[in-house]
Protein backbone atom coordinates (compact mmCIF):
# COMPACT_ATOMS: atom_id res chain seq x y z
CA UNK A 1 0.00 0.00 0.00
CA UNK A 2 1.33 3.41 -0.96
CA UNK A 3 1.72 5.80 1.96
CA UNK A 4 4.32 8.26 0.67
CA UNK A 5 4.32 10.40 -2.47
CA UNK A 6 7.61 11.90 -3.63
CA UNK A 7 7.72 14.70 -6.20
CA UNK A 8 10.58 15.99 -8.28
CA UNK A 9 10.47 19.78 -8.68
CA UNK A 10 11.63 20.74 -12.17
CA UNK A 11 9.04 20.02 -14.87
CA UNK A 12 6.83 18.27 -12.31
CA UNK A 13 5.80 20.93 -9.79
CA UNK A 14 7.72 23.84 -11.29
CA UNK A 15 8.31 24.62 -14.97
CA UNK A 16 11.90 25.07 -16.08
CA UNK A 17 12.24 25.84 -19.80
CA UNK A 18 15.76 27.07 -20.65
CA UNK A 19 15.01 27.31 -24.39
CA UNK A 20 12.23 29.85 -23.89
CA UNK A 21 14.29 31.72 -21.32
CA UNK A 22 17.21 32.06 -23.73
CA UNK A 23 14.93 33.16 -26.58
CA UNK A 24 13.55 35.93 -24.34
CA UNK A 25 16.92 37.70 -24.72
CA UNK A 26 16.47 37.89 -28.49
CA UNK A 27 19.26 35.47 -29.37
CA UNK A 28 19.07 33.75 -32.75
CA UNK A 29 18.42 30.01 -32.76
CA UNK A 30 22.07 29.09 -33.30
CA UNK A 31 23.07 31.10 -30.24
CA UNK A 32 20.18 29.64 -28.23
CA UNK A 33 21.41 26.12 -29.02
CA UNK A 34 25.00 27.02 -28.20
CA UNK A 35 24.11 28.70 -24.92
CA UNK A 36 21.80 25.85 -23.94
CA UNK A 37 24.71 23.44 -24.23
CA UNK A 38 27.24 25.72 -22.55
CA UNK A 39 25.03 27.01 -19.73
CA UNK A 40 22.39 24.34 -19.11
CA UNK A 41 24.39 21.37 -20.36
CA UNK A 42 26.77 19.09 -18.42
CA UNK A 43 28.22 21.80 -16.16
CA UNK A 44 24.76 22.60 -14.78
CA UNK A 45 24.82 19.30 -12.90
CA UNK A 46 27.77 20.59 -10.86
CA UNK A 47 25.68 23.64 -9.95
CA UNK A 48 22.81 21.38 -8.87
CA UNK A 49 25.28 19.30 -6.87
CA UNK A 50 26.35 22.33 -4.89
CA UNK A 51 29.85 22.60 -6.34
CA UNK A 52 29.13 26.28 -7.04
CA UNK A 53 27.77 28.22 -4.08
CA UNK A 54 25.94 30.76 -6.22
CA UNK A 55 24.99 31.61 -9.77
CA UNK A 56 27.75 34.23 -9.71
CA UNK A 57 30.38 31.53 -9.22
CA UNK A 58 28.85 29.42 -11.99
CA UNK A 59 28.64 32.44 -14.33
CA UNK A 60 32.28 33.38 -13.81
CA UNK A 61 33.38 29.79 -14.37
CA UNK A 62 31.37 29.41 -17.58
CA UNK A 63 32.42 32.82 -18.93
CA UNK A 64 36.08 31.89 -18.47
CA UNK A 65 35.53 28.45 -19.99
CA UNK A 66 33.66 29.85 -23.01
CA UNK A 67 35.15 33.33 -23.59
CA UNK A 68 33.48 33.67 -27.00
CA UNK A 69 30.11 33.59 -25.20
CA UNK A 70 31.17 35.44 -22.04
CA UNK A 71 29.00 38.50 -22.67
CA UNK A 72 25.90 36.39 -23.39
CA UNK A 73 26.55 34.19 -20.34
CA UNK A 74 26.71 37.29 -18.14
CA UNK A 75 23.42 38.52 -19.59
CA UNK A 76 21.69 35.18 -19.03
CA UNK A 77 22.99 34.32 -15.57
CA UNK A 78 22.09 37.48 -13.70
CA UNK A 79 20.77 37.21 -10.15
CA UNK A 80 17.12 37.21 -11.30
CA UNK A 81 17.50 34.20 -13.60
CA UNK A 82 15.56 32.10 -11.06
CA UNK A 83 12.37 33.85 -12.14
CA UNK A 84 12.27 31.47 -15.08
CA UNK A 85 10.89 28.94 -12.58
CA UNK A 86 7.09 29.07 -12.74
CA UNK A 87 4.55 27.10 -10.78
CA UNK A 88 2.73 24.21 -12.43
CA UNK A 89 -0.55 25.02 -10.72
CA UNK A 90 -2.37 21.80 -11.67
CA UNK A 91 0.44 19.68 -10.24
CA UNK A 92 0.41 21.72 -7.03
CA UNK A 93 -3.34 21.16 -6.81
CA UNK A 94 -2.85 17.41 -7.17
CA UNK A 95 -0.21 17.49 -4.43
CA UNK A 96 -2.75 19.24 -2.20
CA UNK A 97 -5.39 16.61 -3.00
CA UNK A 98 -2.99 13.80 -2.14
CA UNK A 99 -2.09 15.49 1.14
CA UNK A 100 -5.80 15.84 1.99
CA UNK A 101 -6.23 12.11 1.31
CA UNK A 102 -3.69 11.33 4.00
CA UNK A 103 -0.52 10.66 2.04
CA UNK A 104 2.82 11.91 3.30
CA UNK A 105 4.41 14.25 0.76
CA UNK A 106 8.12 14.57 0.04
CA UNK A 107 10.31 16.33 -2.50
CA UNK A 108 13.44 14.84 -4.10
CA UNK A 109 15.14 17.23 -6.48
CA UNK A 110 18.35 17.98 -8.31
CA UNK A 111 18.43 21.69 -7.59
CA UNK A 112 20.90 24.50 -6.95
CA UNK A 113 20.64 26.61 -3.82
CA UNK A 114 19.57 29.72 -5.76
CA UNK A 115 16.69 27.82 -7.33
CA UNK A 116 15.68 26.21 -4.05
CA UNK A 117 15.56 29.53 -2.20
CA UNK A 118 13.25 30.87 -4.91
CA UNK A 119 10.84 27.98 -5.40
CA UNK A 120 10.48 27.20 -1.68
CA UNK A 121 8.28 30.29 -1.55
CA UNK A 122 5.50 28.49 -3.40
CA UNK A 123 2.54 27.55 -1.21
CA UNK A 124 2.79 23.80 -1.85
CA UNK A 125 5.97 23.66 0.23
CA UNK A 126 3.76 24.22 3.28
CA UNK A 127 2.25 20.78 2.71
CA UNK A 128 5.54 18.95 2.24
CA UNK A 129 6.60 16.61 5.04
CA UNK A 130 10.26 16.57 4.07
CA UNK A 131 12.70 16.81 1.21
CA UNK A 132 16.14 15.96 -0.07
CA UNK A 133 17.90 18.48 -2.30
CA UNK A 134 21.03 17.77 -4.28
CA UNK A 135 22.90 20.96 -3.45
CA UNK A 136 22.64 20.18 0.26
CA UNK A 137 23.74 16.55 -0.06
CA UNK A 138 26.33 17.06 -2.84
CA UNK A 139 24.89 14.13 -4.74
CA UNK A 140 22.47 14.11 -7.67
CA UNK A 141 19.96 11.73 -9.18
CA UNK A 142 20.26 9.09 -10.51
CA UNK A 143 22.99 8.29 -7.98
CA UNK A 144 21.57 5.64 -5.65
CA UNK A 145 22.85 7.52 -2.60
CA UNK A 146 20.35 10.35 -2.89
CA UNK A 147 17.42 7.91 -2.81
CA UNK A 148 18.93 6.14 0.18
CA UNK A 149 19.22 9.47 1.99
CA UNK A 150 15.50 10.09 1.44
CA UNK A 151 14.46 6.61 2.59
CA UNK A 152 16.69 6.59 5.66
CA UNK A 153 16.11 10.17 6.78
CA UNK A 154 12.34 9.80 6.82
CA UNK A 155 12.16 6.06 7.57
CA UNK A 156 10.29 5.34 4.34
CA UNK A 157 9.74 1.83 3.02
CA UNK A 158 10.39 1.66 -0.75
CA UNK A 159 7.33 -0.49 -1.43
CA UNK A 160 5.15 2.15 0.27
CA UNK A 161 6.62 5.01 -1.74
CA UNK A 162 5.66 6.46 -5.14
CA UNK A 163 7.97 8.82 -7.01
CA UNK A 164 7.15 11.29 -9.82
CA UNK A 165 10.07 12.49 -11.94
CA UNK A 166 10.26 13.77 -15.53
CA UNK A 167 13.51 11.87 -16.18
CA UNK A 168 13.18 8.16 -17.03
CA UNK A 169 16.73 7.47 -15.83
CA UNK A 170 15.88 8.86 -12.40
CA UNK A 171 12.77 6.71 -12.22
CA UNK A 172 14.72 3.60 -13.23
CA UNK A 173 17.22 4.23 -10.43
CA UNK A 174 14.39 4.55 -7.90
CA UNK A 175 12.75 1.36 -9.11
CA UNK A 176 15.99 -0.57 -8.60
CA UNK A 177 15.58 0.21 -4.90
CA UNK A 178 11.98 -0.96 -4.89
CA UNK A 179 10.38 2.49 -5.09
CA UNK A 180 7.33 2.75 -7.35
CA UNK A 181 8.03 5.25 -10.11
CA UNK A 182 6.12 7.20 -12.74
CA UNK A 183 7.79 9.18 -15.52
CA UNK A 184 6.01 12.53 -15.49
CA UNK A 185 5.29 13.76 -18.99
CA UNK A 186 2.02 15.53 -18.20
CA UNK A 187 -0.33 15.57 -15.23
CA UNK A 188 -3.33 13.69 -16.70
CA UNK A 189 -1.19 10.70 -17.70
CA UNK A 190 0.83 10.68 -14.49
CA UNK A 191 -2.31 10.99 -12.39
CA UNK A 192 -4.02 8.14 -14.25
CA UNK A 193 -1.01 5.88 -13.64
CA UNK A 194 -0.77 6.92 -10.00
CA UNK A 195 -4.41 6.30 -9.20
CA UNK A 196 -4.04 2.66 -10.32
CA UNK A 197 -1.46 2.24 -7.55
CA UNK A 198 -3.25 4.28 -4.91
What's the short story on this structure?
The protein is α/β, with parallel strands linked by helices and 198 residues long.
Descriptive report:
- Helix 4 runs antiparallel to helix 5 (70-76).
- The longest helix has 12 residues, at 89-100.
- The strands form two sheets. Strands 5-4-1-6-7 form a five-stranded parallel sheet, sandwiched between helices. The protein has a two-stranded antiparallel ribbon with strand order 2-3.
- It has two domains: 4-15 and 85-197, 3-Layer(aba) Sandwich (Rossmann fold); 18-84.
- The chain has helices at residues 18-23, 29-39, 44-48, 55-65, 70-76, 89-100, 113-119, 134-137, 144-153, 168-176, 187-197; strands at 4-7, 14-15, 86-87, 104-109, 130-133, 161-165, 180-183.
- The chain is 47% helix and 14% strand.
- The chain has eleven helices and seven strands.
- The chain has 198 residues and is α/β, with parallel strands linked by helices.
- The protein starts with a strand and ends with a helix.
Widest β-sheet, arrangement of strands? 5-4-1-6-7
Overall geometry? elongated
Biggest sheet layout? 5 strands, parallel
Question: Would you give the CATH topology of the largest domain?
Answer: Rossmann fold
Give the SSE string: EEHHHHHEHEHEHHEHEH
How many domains in all?
2
Count every beta strand, where a strand is a DSSP E run of 2 or more residues. Answer: 7
| Helicity, as a percent range | 40-55%
* Distance, first to last CA: 7 Å
Q: State the helix count.
A: 11
Looking at how many chains there are and whether they match, the oligomeric state comes to single chain
CATH homologous superfamily title of the largest domain: HAD superfamily/HAD-like
**CATH class division of the largest domain:** Alpha Beta
Write down the Rg. 17 Å
Strand content: 5-15%
Mean pLDDT: 97
| Low-confidence regions | none
Specify the CATH architecture of the largest domain. 3-Layer(aba) Sandwich
What is the structural class?
alpha/beta
Amino acid sequence: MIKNIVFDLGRVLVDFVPDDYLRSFGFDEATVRALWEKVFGPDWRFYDRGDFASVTELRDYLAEKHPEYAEAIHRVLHTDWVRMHTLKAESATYLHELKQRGFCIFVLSNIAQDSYEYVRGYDFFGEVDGGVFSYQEHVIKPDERIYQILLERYALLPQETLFFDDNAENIAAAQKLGIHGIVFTNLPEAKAQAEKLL
